[in-house]
Each structure stands twice: as C-alpha cells, then as structure tokens.
Amino acid sequence: MEKKFLNPVTMPATFGYSHVVDVSNARTIYISGQVAINTEGNIVGVGDLASQTKQVFENIRIALEASEVSFHDVVKLTFFLTDISQMPIVRDIRDQYIDTKNPPASSAVEVSKLIKDELLIEIEAIAVGN
What we know:
- The protein has helices spanning 49-66, 87-94; strands at residues 2-6, 20-24, 27-34, 74-81, 105-110, 121-129.
- By secondary structure, it is α+β, with helices and mostly antiparallel strands.
- β4 (74-81), α2 (87-94) and β5 (105-110) form a beta-alpha-beta unit.
- The longest helix has 18 residues, at 49-66.
C-alpha cells in the first residue's frame, strides 16, 4: 500500500488537512458517522462540544482498532457540526488523534440538527489498510 498526502502549491494553503490523499493497493475501511454516545448508550458531554468531540474520536479509535488500523491510516474525515464557528475546539482535539504531519483530507459542514437534539457533532472517517 502506498499513501501520498499532497498539497499542490497551486492550491490554497491548508490548515490541518491535506487537499489530496492518493492511495494505491489498499483495503478501504468506511466508518459510519460517530456521535458522542458511549457504550452504555448515553450521550456524553451534553452542551460541551469538547467532551462530545473527544467521545466521538474515541468511538472512531475503537472502530479503527476493530479493523486492525489506526488514526495513521485515516485518509478522510468529514465533520458535521451544529455550530461551525466552534471548529477550533474540534481541531484541537482532532490533532491529539491524527497524524498532523500527514493529515487526512477533510470536509466540515454546519448542520441544523443531528439525530438527537443534545448532539453537537458527528464525524465519519475513511481509512486504508493492508
């Protein structure tokens, strides 16, 4: 498997993500959108985006481990936030998990509502492995 993280100089500068991730000869793992619900089915961090984001990344970490890959294998993240102006909080936590030297491609979208009113963020991931 080969991964190339590309940021062409003819494109705008990035902030914690790669414009392009080129992968060849790899298995692809798709992780459904994760929210701040723990293994007991409880919402974690009601009203607290940082706590919710940490729980979401922990859920993704567990999903990655189940597929025998890690955050170093993540090539794409998609963020859904009810308040996009809070993205700096999410970035700070994201950077504790991802490979910041070769960050995944990313998209961030503001949404009016998630599956439950108390949820502030949902993140889906795509990873590659051998």
